[in-house]
TrEMBL record, chain A:
The lineage of its organism: Bacteria, Bacillati, Bacillota, Bacilli, Bacillales. The keyword Transmembrane helix does not apply. This is ABC transport system ATP-binding protein. The keyword Lipoprotein does not apply. Gene3D superfamilies: P-loop containing nucleotide triphosphate hydrolases. Pfam families: ABC_tran.
Length: 252, 771
């Protein structure tokens, strides 16, 4: 199987007030094409940091990260930007948008930068994405005129506009109620079925249970892993239970 | 604890703190400078006037004089306190050699005299009347300033040797704007020179009641006494003495005023941004029940510290700058009696600035009360409302590059935020353009039309004398025959009386002739065309309380004739009180004959002038351009200095405010920047977006500023000029001002934007996105 991300022995320290804090202590992991992987772990264990370093948004002190066989550690800022824009998609916990652009404009934004002439085409594509995530009629609203859950779905549409190879999501359901969270997860599953690789950080066992593999982090290291397999037969109760039990074990 | 918090805050926002302080410094410097300069100028003029005991009324006279008749007039008139006639021995510049320099090309009427016995003293640089000994020569201070004469130099006056031992202040004729200059020699030397020049007289009166100067002037004219020359009063001496420095002060005042506005806008902007940043904290403190006065105290203390330091530095700077700026005033007029007052006033001004800043901050902090704890914690600071209808969709845009579109869109949708920078750039542009346009206008050849004479090349003038008729014919013949003259017109100045509104009669000098040949600027109405029309200088119009269309009765030996006022014009020379009409009344006495001349070839002005003065030794030939240069040179130079200072100040403000603004903007937009970077926008993209914002505002600001400068600025400059007697000023500009200056601003803004937003590239995505 083709590796989308291959990380070896990554170390990352932050310089806090006076002493240095090592947040990633030699993390190694591989994510394969088409996988849906989630990351769990106690607060402060380094989940977000892992996500941002794997996507090249944050630098690492040592180790090696490749994305589609391309080493991210040797890339310059601009190259990293290009990779992020063209091959990656991001969904944040707090959906951040340019407040003065309409939703549809925010969605086409990353694509338009390279294809200014294709505004119409891209707008159509964005509308399709919005339809698919169920908010097709909100395209021309401003970002402060829709609900948090709707905004998060718009965020997913933006992540998808460039047909990325991989999507990174940091607690995408963290700020949502359970109903909205369920709908968002449906969106993710559908995207994954269509072939996009997903790496998702979450605190919610129910969310993690829908992915095919769960990584457990503790104190800057991946300490355990749970293979659930594709969500083909829905023994969801069972899956969630498994994740919860593992999580408790890790936290002990 | 407060101390630590304030220190940390100041250190963390170093650039912003320094910028705020610089603005307060600039504001204080200018306010205090204006105070110091104004007080010293007024003080020096007053001191000089007092020390020299300037006459309240002065009639210059060229020709025979009947001293006894004058004496009895003075004795009989109730308002006369003192009276004297001084000699003014006019010697042509060619006969005056000061060290290496000859005064050949000097346009001044250079005259020699002895120290006055009673009043109108010529003073040394300590303000004491000078008593020269034989062989000593005291030279007008202006020649020292121009570097024409030096102490110790040998001087040759009409072949007689003198030693230059000092310079003199002359309360009447100090200014380059006064057309005569007095040299001082010993009585005995004077007698030896008498045969070398033409004698003119200064008939001088000191009055008991200054308010009745006009009545005295009329009485003097009524008495038919010697009046072959300009009439001047003490008020005019003061204006002439103060003009050049006054214009400079006026410009500093204008710039200072705008800087005060800009500084307050920046304080407002910075403070509001800071409050927005702290919004949540303030809400939290409110929620947990801490008194808001505590937070307020921190804010106020911080700005009070900045304001205090800024004011102190500003005050010191103003003392430093006032030295060189006062140099001219000190040199020409000496120390002011009010010097200590000026320092007190400067300190007082700085204190006012300080209190204003603090007061303004208190005023701005009122909005603390409006912060609702609940909403502050839940939603953070309120953004500008965006619910307005959206007309420009990025996805529908086909024209602009995406980054440019985002930049412009941002400006358009956060107008309130960008308004600050826009107004500052607009004012900067204004500060840049108005003084330069004023300078261009004043230095342009057409400026003379505001001074009461048209755009001529040469002027030939002669005072009335016994050989008058012969001479007149000789001049006319010469001018008619000369090949190089394209056009000339004869203007005769005659003295009449006119009825005022209250029925009293007052002297009026009317220039008779064709006033359309060399047109001047009328700020109301037009030149006289009919025999019964008359144009008045603005001073006369005020004096007689006339407006265009009013009638005025002119009294001559032939009786009373009614004229209609056809126009009003500016005139600051010859005492400022003139009138123009076309009819020629043979009966009234001619005071002066002027010929306005236009040459075929303007490069021949100097040569023709020389030929003419040789061929017609009894006339005075004036080279109009050279004349203006010598008369207004100092004033124009001080306007130019002010214009240059304004240019630098404006560019400095542009840079500083752009920098401050961009820095605050980046801080404010941090989450959006992080997001854009996360979704793959490069640093260059961000840079383009911010540059677009800067440029977009700059373009609007420069356009607005230019328009404002040409309308409102013109009126302001006009008003300043009007206070010196020049009215209805229209700007003459130069392409550089409207092309070059914006380019300069553009470069400065670009640079400031680059530096101000350089931090944007360094914003760590992860830190600003993860909650
Ligand atoms: N910019 C920073 N400077 C210093 N320390 C940091 C910085 N960012 C994160 N850390 C530290 O790194 C550790 C890991 O942070 P990270 O945000 O990756 O945790 P997380 O697992 O995502 O936690 P959560 O579940 O609460 O989001 C924490 O202990 C945090 O204090
Ligand atoms: Mg996290």
């Amino acid at each position: 199987m083709k590796k989308v991300i291959n990380a070896q022995h990554i170390h990352k320290t932050f310089a806090a007030e006076k002493e240095k804090v090592m947040v990633l202590k030699g993390v190694s992991t591989t994510i394969y094409k088409g996988e849906f992987v989630s990351v769990m772990g106690p607060s402060g264990s380094g989940k977000s940091t892992l996500l941002y370093t794997l996507s090249g948004m944050d630098t690492i002190d040592s180790g090696e990260i490749t994305f589609n066989d391309q080493s991210l550690t040797v890339c310059g800022e601009t190259e990293l930007s290009d990779i992020r824009r063209q091959q990656m998609g991001f969904v944040f916990q707090q959906p951040t948008f340019l407040k003065n652009l309409a939703i549809i404009d925010n969605i086409v934004l990353p694509a338009l930068r390279d294809n200014r002439k294709k505004g119409k085409e891209l707008a159509n594509k964005a509308k399709q994405l919005l339809e698919r995530t169920g908010i097709g009629d909100l395209a021309y609203r401003m970002t402060n005129q829709v609900s948090g859950g709707q905004l998060q779905r718009a965020g997913i549409c933006r992540a998808l506009i460039n047909e990325p190879k991989m999507i990174f999501a940091d607690e995408p359901t963290g700020a949502l109620n359970s109903k909205s969270a369920e709908e968002i997860m449906k969106n993710f599953l559908q995207i994954n079925q269509e072939g996009t690789t997903i790496l998702l950080v979450t605190h919610d066992a129910k969310v993690a249970a829908q992915s095919e593999r769960v990584l457990f982090m503790k104190d800057g290291q991946i300490v355990d892993e749970l293979h659930l397999g594709k969500l083909s037969n829905p023994f969801l109760e069972n899956r969630t239970e498994k994740v919860t039990r593992k999580m408790l074990k890790v936290e002990m | 604890m407060y101390y630590r918090m304030i220190r940390n805050d100041l250190l963390r926002n170093k650039l912003i703190s320094i910028t705020m302080m610089l603005f307060i410094t600039a504001m204080t410097t200018l306010v205090s400078l204006v105070a110091i300069l104004t007080i010293n100028l007024i003080g020096s003029i007053d001191t000089l006037t007092k020390q020299a005991e300037v006459p309240d009324f002065l009639q210059m006279h060229n020709g025979d004089i009947d001293t006894e008749r004058l004496q009895s007039f003075a004795a009989a008139h109730e308002n006369v306190k003192d009276f004297q006639v001084l000699d003014f021995l006019n010697i042509t510049g060619a006969k005056i050699q000061l060290g290496e320099n000859s005064l050949m090309d000097n346009i001044q009427d250079n005259g020699f005299s002895t120290q006055s016995p009673k009043f109108d003293y010529l003073l040394d640089l300590d303000g004491q009347p000078i008593q020269p000994t034989e062989g000593e020569l005291y030279v007008p201070i202006g020649y020292m300033k121009e570097g024409i004469a030096q102490i110790g130099d040998e001087a040759k006056i009409a072949g007689k040797a003198f030693q230059i031992v000092g310079f003199l202040r002359d309360a009447q004729m100090n200014s380059p704007l006064a057309s005569s200059k007095r040299f001082l020699v010993h009585e005995k030397d004077y007698q030896e020179l008498v045969s070398e020049g033409t004698l003119e007289y200064l008939i001088e009166f000191q009055l008991k009641a200054l308010s009745k100067t006009n009545e005295f002037e009329t009485a003097y004219a009524d008495a038919g006494l010697e009046a072959n020359g300009p009439t001047l009063t003490s008020g005019l001496f003061k204006i002439i003495n103060g003009l050049s420095d006054g214009i400079m002060i006026a410009m500093i005042l204008l710039v200072g005023f705008l800087i005060v506005i800009i500084a307050f806008m920046c304080i407002r902007f910075t403070l509001l941004t800071k409050i927005e940043e702290d919004y949540r904290e303030i809400g939290t403190m409110k929620a947990i029940g801490l008194p808001l006065t505590d937070i307020k105290k921190i804010y106020v203390a911080k700005y009070a510290l900045l304001a205090l330091v800024g004011c102190l530095i500003g005050l010191l700077l103003s003392f430093t700058f006032s030295g060189p700026l006062l140099e001219n005033i000190r040199l020409y007029m000496g120390e002011s009696d009010y010097a200590s007052w000026s320092i007190l006033l400067a300190i007082f001004g700085s204190m006012v600035v300080f209190l204003l800043v603090i007061g303004y901050i208190h005023f701005l902090l009122r909005r603390f009360r409006k912060i609702s704890a609940a909403s502050a914690i839940r939603t953070g600071s309120p953004e500008e409302k965006n619910a307005r209808k959206n007309y420009f969709f990025l996805s529908k845009n086909r024209v602009l590059p995406t980054n440019v579109f985002i930049g412009i869109k941002d400006v358009l949708s956060r107008k309130k935020l960008y308004a600050t920078m826009l107004i500052v750039l607009l004012l900067s542009c204004f500060i840049m353009v108005v003084p330069w346009n004023t300078y261009q206008t004043v230095s342009s050849p057409t400026f003379t039309k505001y001074l009461g004479f048209g755009d001529m090349d040469l002027m030939v003038s002669m005072y009335q004398s016994d050989e008058h008729v012969d001479n007149e014919q000789q001049v006319v013949n010469y001018l008619n025959e000369s090949e190089s003259i394209e056009q000339f017109v004869q203007i005769t100045s005659k003295s009449f009386k006119a009825k005022k509104e209250d029925g009293s009669e007052e002297k009026i000098v009317i220039e008779l002739g064709d006033h359309n040949a060399f047109p001047i600027e009328y700020h109301a109405g037009k030149a006289p065309e009919q025999p019964n029309e008359i144009a008045l200088s603005s001073m006369n119009a005020t004096e007689f309380e006339k407006q265009v269309g009013d009638t005025i009765e002119i009294i001559s030996d032939n009786g009373t004739e009614t004229f209609v006022v056809s126009g009003i014009y500016s005139n600051i020379l010859n005492g400022g009180k003139t009138a123009k009409a076309i009819s020629s009344d043979e009966s009234a006495p001619t005071m002066r004959l002027n010929y306005y001349i236009k040459l075929n070839d303007t490069s021949q002005i100097a040569g023709t002038a020389k030929e003419m003065s040789e061929a017609l030794p009894f006339v005075k030939v004036t080279d109009a351009d050279n004349h203006k240069q010598q008369v207004f040179g100092a004033t124009i130079a001080s306007i130019k200095t002010a214009a240059n200072v304004s240019l630098i100040v404006a560019l400095f403000i542009t840079g500083l405010v752009s920098l401050l603004f961009m820095k605050l903007l980046v801080a404010k937009d941090r989450p959006a920047i992080a997001m854009l970077k996360a979704i793959g926008f490069t640093n260059q993209d961000l840079s383009k977006q911010y540059t677009t914002r800067g440029m977009f505002i700059l373009i609007i600001g420069v356009a607005g500023g230019s328009i404002l400068a040409n309308t409102f600025g013109e009126s302001i400059a006009g008003m300043v000029m009007a206070s010196f007697g020049i009215e209805a000023l229209t700007f003459v500009s130069h392409p550089i001002i409207y092309l070059g200056f914006p380019v300069l601003m553009l470069l400065v803004t670009l640079l400031a934007t680059k530096i101000g937003t350089s931090q944007a590239g360094k914003i760590a995505i992860a830190e600003n996105i993860k909650e």
